[in-house]
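Late entry, written up from scratch paper. The run itself happened at the end of the previous shift, but nothing got recorded in the book at the time, so transcribing now.
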Amino acid sequence: MTAAFPYDDIASKIALALGVGLLVGLEREWAQKDVGVRTFALTGLLGALSYLAQPALVFVALGGAILLVGLLNTRSLIKSGSVEMTTSVALLVTVILGALIGEGHYFTAITAAIVMTLLLAWKVELTRFAGGLSPEEIRSAVLLALLTFVLYPLLPNRFIDPWALVNPRQAWLIVIVVAGVGFLNYLMLRLYGMRGSYYAAFFGGLISSKAAAAELSGVLAENERRGSLGIAVFLITSGAMFLRNLITLVIFAPQAAKIALYPLGGMGIAAAGLLAWFSRSKQMAPMEQQLRLSSPLSFPRVAKFAGLFVTLICLGTFIERFFGAAAFLAMSAAGGLVSGASTTASAAALTLAKKVSPGTAATATVITSMTSALTNAPLIYSQTQDKALFRRLAGVCMLIVAVGLIALVLRQLWGG
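Output as recorded:
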């Protein structure tokens, strides 16, 4: 019996089962539910001990938990006329988590417990977010999910044209990942966008710096503090865009990311330093403003991004193949005027397909980031019509671009 139940293994499983139950129970106790810390901890322990004694006993433990859920909801109906559906499901899940720990699936149980606790704790934010979704956003997200999980496995994982331009599965994967990262940023924006224009500028810049700059500068046009706030919006949206482009390279072209880190990081640090400098002004206090951007997972937007992305891949391959790296960099500079995200993704995809070198892709990303940032200044001016603000923005732009160029040249000299 001792050999079948080694002390150290059993002690670990008991501790983890109790810990998982305590984690969920603390949140339920904080939410002032009838079932709290002790009940959830004992429920997790019940699942683990049931599996350790006899795996088939897990079904008995689950049946007991279902009976407990029935009693809980009967009491709740009598007391308040409502049922504790979420707490009931959490109790049943905790039994399963305890059984998984008893079987030795620690990662699965602990990860699921953390995710479940987050879902329980974010009730207000998730309810507000779901209630604010439009029917178009919901339909587009469902359609995109179908295209992702149904269409993606069916796409050929090879070049389908005689010029070796497009690999459908690879291209679609990059589109989905970029759109998914954008949706996470969009989620954060919807949850926390009311906490001020700085939050809105940052999360909006991660999605689309141009859209965020245009939206926020439209609000600034009627604000007497638009000069200082306009600079803050530009610096934050541009800094977020630099970060987004670097993350894209890290995911798909790590070698290029190592090269682009210095100029993109330098421009980001310069933007942060300038923001800190200007923020000493009392006029730099953020406004309470919620940014209204369309969902990155709307099907028309994803389709537009995918079309532009594939077009840039084809053009980039032809240009680099027949005209060299310099022409490819020129195309990337022009691409930044339209969509820095698409241009960066195409550079990463071409590096992944070994059609351009990591150095070329890194330089292309830095250049498209510069041109994209330079575009934001005219966008803000078009909304505010403030010439003094535009002159200050132009000076800030040129300083950030100069930092990027110097860092890029030094990195090329140091690295090569």
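The first helix runs from residue 7 to 30.
(Scratch paper discarded after transcription.)
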